[in-house]
Amino acid sequence: MQTLLFLLCLLHSLNPTYPIYASICDCNNMKIRGILDFELPYYCDNEKPETQHLPRMPTTYTLVTKQKPAATWKGWTCRQWTKTKKITGSFWIGYFDTVYSQETILITPLECWRMVNDKKCGDNNMQTEPTGLSFAATPTGEGKWYAIKEYQTLNCIAEQITLRQEKPDSPIESPFGLLNTTQQEGQFIQNQNTIVWGERTTNSSYTQTLLKEKGYLEVPREPESDNSSRLYDISRQIKISFPNKPDKDIVPIGHKVVGIPLTYLTFPAETTKILYEMFKNTIATGLKNTNLATPVCEDYRELYKSRPQRSLL
């Protein structure tokens, strides 16, 4: 009985607990996030009105870029050095002092090219290796009593290297550091290395395909203020925003990707037609409501006023 009374008193002394209430996001209204999402994240924004969209439209797409990668090209680095064997003969018969030394020879760019083309190190043939050419030898010879004898050999190495340049006005990157010169110079001496390279070809109309995949479009039923649409690729976790206005800088017709310079989306003809109609209808509405000569309206008058009107979907 005493135990029961003790337990009742103990329970009565404990502070009561209350449930904790917290608001959570609506998980039935998921927002896709991916590696190419260029919008700031938002969470439980219940006051933001939802944009009405047309039914999601499956489509294929191609993501291309006109950003030129860093230019790279092959070159050669050449070095020459002499190895010397110096023997000093003592007055005492049979005693010789032998000293080996090495000295670097700075060669000209012309001598470097001659070494590469002729595969010669002085009068000796150079050995071909996976990364270049080389000739290495140690001088040999005997000493003489009470005399100084010196023997020398010429050693050479020519290695193929990769040079890199981000922009035409940027320094050239090499395995030996930055070269403060231009590609047109074709040569540079860095410390004890003579570096040479030939002509580098460039492609002024560079375009590279980054992706060619399937996804779906989310096109607003009523054009948004920025007249844009979105592409989703769930398999790659990609969300890309782009303007409906076609871009003249890419062939075939493409749309600039928001947030990535010189990057474009291209679509099949039927998808491009729908996006064009959305853009044209938006501009046509603007022309009816205002007579202002805005850049967008001028673009429309210049590029699209002669084309027949079509209805969206």
Summarize the structure in words.
- Helices cover 17% and strands 36% of the residues.
- The strands form four sheets. Strands 2, 3, 6, 7, 8, 11 and 12 form a seven-stranded antiparallel β-sheet that branches. Strands 15-14-13-1-17-16 form a six-stranded antiparallel β-sheet.
- The termini are far apart.
- Helix 3 packs across helix 4.
- The chain is built from four helices and 17 strands.
- Strand 11 and strand 12 form a beta hairpin.
- The longest helix is centred in the last third of the chain and has 21 residues.
- The chain is α+β, with helices and mostly antiparallel strands.
- The chain folds into two domains: 121 residues, PH-domain like (Roll); 127 residues, no CATH class.
Features:
alpha+beta; 7-stranded antiparallel sheet; 6-stranded antiparallel sheet; rod-shaped; 4 helices; PH-domain like; 17% helix; 2 domains; 313 residues; 17 strands
As residue ranges, the low-confidence spans are 17-27
General form: rod-shaped
Proportion in helices = 10-25%
What is the total domain count?
2
The whole-angstrom Rg is: 38 Å
* Helix/sheet category: alpha+beta
> How many H/I helical runs?
4
Sheet bearing the most strands, described?
Answer: 7 strands, antiparallel
Strand content: 35-45%
